[in-house]
Amino acid sequence: MYKADALDLINRFKDGDTSAFEEILLKYQDKVYNLCRHMLGNSHDAEDAAQDVFLKAYQNLNRFKPEASLLTWLYRIAINTCIDYRRKPFFESLFKNSKEGDVFVVDHPSDSPSPEKLYESKKISNAIQLALGRLSEKLRTVIVLKEVEGLSYEEISEVLDVSIGTVKSRISRAREELKELLINFREQK
Amino acid sequence: MICLKRKLVSPYIDCELSVEERDLFESHINECRECAGEIKRLQKMHELFADAETFKAPHGFSTRVLANIREKETKRFGGFVHILAKSAEGVVVLILIFVGIILGSFLSKTLMSEKGNLVASLSLDIFTPAPPDSVGGVYLAMTEAKNEK
């Protein structure tokens, strides 16, 4: 059903119905943004990268092969875009991380039942962001796709175009490193 | 000493083991405190991720994306129009050169058919010799006599 919906949207886009792209954008924007946010660690770069992802998707949607999953395809574009963003010159990030920018972009937690819970969640998020930032690019990518996006090993291997064995070993290594980096939080729980 | 089956902990908590692998590993966990401890540690970490924030796209994100796409498309279209205008200029120049060549050859043909041989029409042979008693004839006779001296 899910794949059929996505295919219908793609076919409508290929037939010249640009409103189909708006539907794709609204459907996947949160997932793509969440991925970029965890990969890049700040909201400014995350929004820029997520915008780039959808621009690339718009320009290449006509070449999309229906046998692939649209979300997997978007994730692949997002991962490559985020890797490019992380390789940007240092001074560019410095410029974009100015406090003025922070006013405009606000992240919205998906559920915030109480201020205490929200505070706790923010604290954990910050710790996770710091820990993810200390992982290598390859390990950060697999762990974000697994723990944040909840993809299966097979889906991750499709997104990254690597074998399932590679995914398995990278996830184990990433968890091994994260375990040390998040030791304080794990003990509090 | 590290248990050799510890590498199965990650796929186990991710439910990525086959039924047989899972059954075998579960019976192993009952005997191996190291693997059992590792499962607990990784599950706690998994819970940390579950408790962390999920970020949603900021307000107006889709509007900004669509505006960005429109802007890029307009620029692309503008570039296309510019290339088209330059190509048209080139085509006009080529047409003018071609028309010039055709017109030139047509005119020269007309001239030749009207006056016969164009080269012959420009030859000095068409002039008649000056009469000896005319001013020109006297001048020529004087010039020849001077040259003979």
In short:
The complex is a heterodimer of chains A (189) and B (149). Chain A has 189 residues and is mostly helical.
What does this structure look like?
- The complex is a heterodimer of chains A (189) and B (149).
- With 189 residues, chain A is an all-alpha fold.
- Chain A folds into 2 domains: 1-108, RNA polymerase sigma factor, region 2, helix turn helix motif (Rna Polymerase Sigma Factor, Chain: A, Orthogonal Bundle); 113-189, Winged helix-like DNA-binding domain superfamily/Winged helix DNA-binding domain (Arc Repressor Mutant, subunit A), CATH 1.10.10.
- Helix content of chain A is 77%, strand content 1%.
- Chain A contains 11 helices and 1 strand.
- Chain A has helices at 2-14, 19-40, 43-60, 70-86, 90-96, 99-104, 115-133, 137-148, 153-160, 164-181, 183-188, and one strand at 108-109.
- Chain B folds into 2 domains: 4-51, no CATH class; 65-143.
- Chain B is mostly helical.
- Chain B starts with 8 loop residues before the first helix and ends with a helix.
- The chains are: A mainly alpha (189), B mainly alpha (149).
- The interface between A and B is large, with 47 and 31 residues.
- β1 (108-109) of chain A pairs antiparallel with β1 (55-56) of chain B, so a sheet runs across the interface.
For the structure shown, list the relevant keywords.
heterodimer; A: 189 residues; Rna Polymerase Sigma Factor, Chain: A; Arc Repressor Mutant, subunit A; globular; B: 149 residues; mainly alpha; 2 domains
Protein topology:
The complex is a heterodimer of chains A (189) and B (149).
Chain A (H helix, E strand, L loop, with lengths): L1 H13 L4 H22 L2 H18 L9 H17 L3 H7 L2 H6 L3 E2 L5 H19 L3 H12 L4 H8 L3 H18 L1 H6 L1
Chain B lengths: L8 H5 L5 H11 L3 H19 L3 E2 L4 H55 L2 H4 L13 H14 L1
